[in-house]
Automatic annotation (TrEMBL):
It comes from the Bacteria. It catalyses: 2 GTP = 3',3'-c-di-GMP + 2 diphosphate. Pfam families: GGDEF. Gene3D superfamilies: 3.30.70.270, 3.40.50.2300. GO terms for molecular function: diguanylate cyclase activity. The chain crosses the membrane at residues 349-372. Residues 441-576 form the GGDEF domain. This is diguanylate cyclase. Keywords: Membrane, Transmembrane, Transmembrane helix. It is an enzyme of class 2 (transferase). The lineage of its organism: Bacteria, Pseudomonadati, Pseudomonadota, Betaproteobacteria, Burkholderiales.
Length: 576
């Protein structure tokens, strides 16, 4: 299937668009014009038809042909809207069907196939196709012919244009002595075909410049086996320059690339060559003809441009082989094939992406860790603050509690004696009377008064009176049961409350207290100790009668006390 590409013929816009043409209309016109031109260009491209005749068979057979083909289509492909004709391609399939059958069948084949095709040009690539076309003037009558890379110096076709590469044999040899400076002998390998002989002649001529400094040998007339055997015997200081070799002295045929590989396998010396397609692993390289450059030249011819044949040679080396033979001074800009790429070259974007992701991840993790740390610190500070607050609240609560307790104590304690005061006793009485009402238990109340206390004060002083009050308070406290309570009710008067105690029992208890008081000895000034007595009025709540109130109970006890005073003091009187 021939390749069809559009042809560009950039037209000129004549005249000007009307100034006041609306913008939308101008755009529509421009698009219409572009489409029309594209259609015209495609149609124009399809109008032109050219035939490329290759010498060396399909690309999968010939590395050289693959390179030429690539150069041709790369060059055409660069012209998106270029002057690209419809390309037909034919090949002499020498490697698969043999040289003669291939040559014999080509003319009738072309005649039949292209009987109805009007070609605009025929281009040959390489020696075989050029020879064939030149010897068949009857084919494609009147169609311009171009013979590219035909391989013979000074050859003029009987018709058409010859585009031959001017091989630079001087550079071909020069690069060998440059990159392998110890080279004193060059063995040129080839065969007896006219084209190879032409190359050998070129090398021979160029070698003259070296005189005695370079020993040249030309191996072009031996069997392949002999070639490999002799190559295996070559020693240091020698290099091989291998031209594309197809045949041997016995008529044997081979692909030049196979010959190159075998030579590389057996020899100990570096092998250089003259075409890029032979720079295979094991072949060092050299100043070689570029298949792609030839392909580009063919493309230029097909497009009607002058073919640039000056730049079709370049320095190409096989990196591994150059390393193996320790080649030096490789010209700058040389193409190095099979260079092992470093990890960086191979995976640069993957590495950069990976590193970028790691950096981003690192930054995110760092930010996260910092945020977590900051949060933890804030939480810690908050906890400390809360604990401090709780401690302070607890402390304040305790202080308040203690203050309240103290206040309560101060409010309910008699400061002189340390026992409960009147207020506290009043609360006790109310509480116990409540129990009496609920449980119907007995409750006794003793009202105690120091006899003739005024006299103690007056005789021994107020402080002695205080000591007497304290002595009586201590005695009363010490004599009480756990459930009894005592309070200083005022002045030298005390009240005792005795739960679960009836009037008689309370009277007995009061009697014991009276006796205990009479045994007290209160110290006064001058080391003297004075005695005192107490009078006690006893009252009891009677569960079977109307319930008492605090004041009714106190009044009855007070009356009993009054009676005790009246009856002479130092006695106990039971109330009604
Ligand atoms: N030292 C001292 N004297 C007090 C205190 N409270 C009251 N007094 C005095 O106690 C005396 C009480 O005297 P009175 O009420 O006349 O009774 P009394 O002298 O004990 O006589 P009878 O009760 O009838 O035996 C008064 O002189 C009060 O000034 C006190 O806290 N300390």
């Amino acid at each position: 299937m021939p390749l069809t590409l559009p042809r560009s013929a950039p037209p000129r816009i004549r005249g000007k668009l009307p100034r006041k043409l609306p913008r939308a209309a101008a755009w529509a016109c421009a698009v219409f014009w572009l489409l029309a031109q594209a259609g015209h260009a495609i149609a124009a491209g399809e109008d032109r038809k050219v035939l490329v005749l290759y010498s060396l068979g399909a690309e999968n057979i010939s590395a050289w042909q693959a390179m030429v083909h690539k150069g041709l289509y790369d060059e055409l492909g660069r012209k998106a809207w270029g002057d690209v004709p419809m390309i037909f391609e034919e090949r002499f399939d020498v490697a698969r069907v043999g040289r003669q059958p291939s040559l014999d069948s080509m003319a009738p084949y072309l005649r039949t196939k292209y009987a109805q095709v009007k070609l605009d040009a025929v281009v040959t690539e390489n020696y075989l196709a050029a020879t064939f076309l030149n010897s068949h003037p009857e084919l494609f009558p009147g169609v311009p012919r171009f013979y590219v890379n035909h391989g013979r110096r000074g050859w003029r076709p009987r018709d058409g244009e010859a585009l031959e590469v001017a091989h630079d044999y001087g550079r071909m040899l020069g690069v060998i002595t440059r990159v392998a400076p110890s080279t004193r002998r060059i063995v040129v390998v080839g065969d007896k075909t006219p084209r190879v002989q032409e190359w050998i002649a070129g090398a021979r001529e160029a070698a003259r410049a070296y005189g005695q400094r370079l020993q040249m040998e030309y191996w072009d007339n031996q069997s392949f086996d002999e070639l490999y055997r002799r190559a295996s015997l070559l020693k240091g200081g020698t290099a091989i320059l291998m031209f594309a070799t197809y045949t041997d002295s016995t008529g044997g045929a081979a692909l030049p690339s196979d010959v190159a590989r075998k030579l590389a396998d057996v020899t100990q010396v570096p092998i250089f060559t003259h075409v890029e397609s032979l720079v295979v692993p094991g072949i060092a390289g050299g100043y070689v003809l570029s298949g792609e450059a030839i392909g580009r030249a063919v493309a230029q011819v097909l497009q009607g441009q002058p073919a640039d044949m000056s730049n079709v040679q370049r320095y190409v080396f096989d990196y591994q082989t150059a390393e193996r033979y320790g080649l030096v001074n490789i010209p700058q800009g040389a193409l190095m094939l099979n260079r092992p790429h470093g990890v960086w070259e191979l995976y640069r974007w993957q590495i950069l992406t990976g590193v970028g992701l790691i950096v981003v991840e690192g930054v995110l993790i760092t930010a996260l860790v910092m945020a977590l740390r900051a949060r933890r610190r804030a939480m810690g500070a908050l906890n400390d603050e809360r604990n401090n607050l709780e401690d302070r609240v607890l402390q304040r609560t305790l202080e308040l509690l203690m203050a309240n307790t103290k206040l309560e104590q101060l409010a309910t304690t008699d400061p002189l004696t340390g026992i409960a005061n009147r207020r506290k006793m009043t609360e006790h009485i109310a509480k116990e009377l409540e129990r009496v009402r609920r449980l119907r238990h007995p409750l006794a109340l003793l009202m105690v008064d120091i006899d003739h206390f005024k006299r103690i004060n007056d005789t021994y002083g107020h402080e002695a009176g205080d000591r007497a009050i304290i002595a009586v308070a201590n005695m009363l406290s010490a004599s009480l049961r756990a459930i009894d309570t005592v309070a200083r009710f005022g002045g030298e008067e005390f009240v005792l409350l005795m739960p679960e105690t009836d009037l008689e029992t309370a009277g007995l208890a009061a009697e014991r207290l009276r006796e205990a008081a009479s045994l007290l000895a209160v110290e006064v000034d001058g080391g003297l100790a004075i005695a005192l007595t107490i009078s006690i009025g006893v009252a009891a709540s009677r569960p079977q009668q109307a319930p008492d109130t605090a004041s009714s109970l106190l009044v009855r006890a007070d009356k009993a006390l009054y009676q005790a005073k009246e009856e002479g003091r130092n006695r106990v009187v039971l109330g009604p």
